[in-house]
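Hi C.,

You asked whether I'd gotten around to modeling the 106-residue construct. I have! Everything is below, sequence then structure, no commentary in between.
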Amino acid sequence: MSASIANRKIWEGYRLPDSASDVTYHVDFGGCEAEFAIAETDFLEWCELRGWQPVRVDRATPYFQPVLLPDDERLVEEGYTFSIPDGQGAFDSKRSRAAFWVSSFP
């Protein structure tokens, strides 16, 4: 799915850049998750525009531990993790894919 279609449902503060593609997402009253293809430069710009500070991965770390979408047990060996209000995410440089989850539950 395209970013423009997914952004109709993704929570406002977490909407994807137009350059995101191959988007999978889940949104309900308590959570918002997305997994998508994106170039590294576009990912970093997206984070910067939102004030999120990605941290370069220095050891293999889980790519995405979703609550609502299917489990993804892959590891990121090159890329970033990032914290967002009430959630977290990751970017895998080798695959040019990013994912995040955010929850309204404490």
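If it helps when you're writing up: The chain has one domain: 3-103.

Thanks,
B.
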